[in-house]
Structure formats: C-alpha cells, structure tokens
Amino acid sequence: MPVLVITGTGTEVGKTVVTAAVAATALAAGRSVAVLKAAQTGVRPDEPGDAEEVTRLAGAVTATELARYPDPLAPATAARRAGRAPVRPHDVAETAAKLATEHDLVLVEGAGGLLVRFDEDGGTLADAAALLSAPVLVVAAAGLGTLNVTELTIRELRSRGLEPAGVVIGSWPAEADLAARCNVRDLPEVTGVPLLGAVPAGAAGLPPAGFRASAPRWLAPRLDGMWDAVAFRELEAG
Length: 238
Prior knowledge:
Layout: E1 3-8, H1 15-28, E2 33-37, E3 40-41, H2 50-58, E4 62-65, E5 68-69, H3 75-82, H4 89-100, E6 105-113, H5 125-132, E7 136-140, H6 146-159, E8 164-172, H7 178-191, E9 195-200, H8 208-214, H9 229-237
Parallel strand pairs: 1-6, 1-7, 2-4, 2-6, 3-5, 7-8, 8-9
Helix pairs in contact: 1-2, 4-5, 6-7, 7-9
C-alpha cells in the first residue's frame, strides 16, 4: 500500500500517535516514509503540529502539512473563521500522489473523523481517499461506545467503495475495564475488519528511542509489526 489514509472515529482517539507508530514500524522495516497532515487546526504558527509530533516520535520521515488554522474546529469552519483558503480533497490527493513517487509509504492523517468537512463544498478525507484509491486505517477508542462509532465509520467507507484496512486501538489503558476487554473481541465481529494493533496509553510520553523500539510490538504484521490479536486478547482476558 503506497498510500495509507488514517482516520479516527472522532477526536482525541490517538490518531497522531498511531500514525507515528505506523511510521516508526515502517522505518524499522527499511521503508522510506512520508507523512501528510491534510489540515492542522487549533495550533498557532509557532507551535508544533501533528506532523512535527510524528517526526519527533518516529524519526526520519518526510513531514508535510497542507494548511494550518488557529481555531480548534473542523477544517472548513476553521478556514472560514480565519479568512483563509480551505484544503480540498484534490489538494490532499495530489500532494499524497507526488509523495508516493518518492517514498515507499505515504501516511495521510485526517482531522477528527472520516466525514469532518475540509471545505464549503463538503469535501472530506473520504473523498481524498477515493481520489487516491487508498485503503483507510481507522483509529478507535478502547472503551464503552466504541463499537457503534467504529462500525458506522467502517460502514461509511464500504458504502463509498473504499477499502477499510483495519482498526487500531489508539490508546489502550494500563488497566483495561470490562468494556475494553470485550471490545477487543467484538470490534472485528461488528466491523468485519481485522484489529491491527493497540497502542498503549501514554505512548507519546516515551523517549523517542523507546517509542521507535516499541512500536512494532503494538502493530500487526500487515503494518510491518509483530502484534498478535489472539495473544493480546487472551492476555487481557486474564
């Protein structure tokens, strides 16, 4: 997969940390990696954004950010309030396609969920994925409520003819409750796609060298890692 689009089931589910883990694992496997942040919101010009965070954690990636808006809002709304041009799906697709000619893997990170609007015409990350014919990795929360929103996201991908690559849990708690433990088994059943990893809560707080060394253990072989869903489920079941 030369281009992999990464979306979340909502905000604050660990999308950027998962992107960094995928990048670090691919780099460890000897692949060249580019990361494209389609639209960065809620960050001042002098602050590091998500693309910079991926670089800090993962290492030698080519990081690109198409646009930045100061308000922590959906990109279309943030662009309108800032009086700036919005990012459009074809902008994302064109940039990702160019990066793909120069790298083994391009990771396109969205903003929030799959259908968050980029522009006033209703363009979304899903539209960019369609233009790229790229699979979409869904980052989900661990606990109660995640089954519904994850299944809805996968259904929307399929309704658009897009390929769901799988699901990664973006922040797995140190002490998982009953709902989280059950979700490890239930997520593949309700979505019909594999669970491809679980990133520990607080992973972004690791020293970069520790993050890079650990990342392959959080992701399944399809993402160049060594994480085993069956073994993980049995371990967490106690």
